[in-house]
Known about the structure:
MetI-like fold
Amino acid sequence: xxxxxPLIITLKTALTATFITFFGGIALAYCVxxxxxxxxxxxxxxxxxxxxxxxxxxxxxxxxxxxxxAIGKLLLQLDIRLVFTWQAAVIAAVVVSLPLMYRxxxxxxxxxxxxxxxxxxxxxxxxxRIFWHILLxxxxxxxxxxxxxxxxxxxxxxxxxxxFAGNIPGRTQTMSTAIYAAVxxxxxxxxxxxxxxxxIFSLFFVLAMNLWLTRxxxxxx
Length: 221
């Protein structure tokens, strides 16, 4: 009987990470767009995991959250273990996929006509209502694109995951790390099956996003 645990762990990790990055990326994009100082620095810090090698991201996660760090020691005192757990895989996926959600959401916010926002403020509309009723509806295409991109990125995450969460079968082994383990064991058939699965999942979601965006453009035209 085939072992489906890498598929289940991958989907569970990617969905959980995407849920976090969806809200986190939008919130960060909104805050950075509104910043008047240090905007460039904040943008660079949030985007940094996107340009760093994933193994470097995983190494820094070990430094900041490992058992030798101050945070890690505090978590151990609370009987909370992160390293080499499924939660660690989620954290790794969030860190590497968050910049994609952030960049696309910020780009969508920045492209909005500022006169609409200024007019709403002149009419006494609160910032909260402006966010929910003006920013989000008008930026929905960019936000959806970021959602799909962050999900597919989390789906195929490897470097940070194997550094921070390990490759424990049935616990932290995702499809990406299962491919690595299969290649190491010279089982190219199994590696090919998991690779095909990742390609199919990623292609499906990207095609679905493109179809939705095309329909939205046709409605506008």
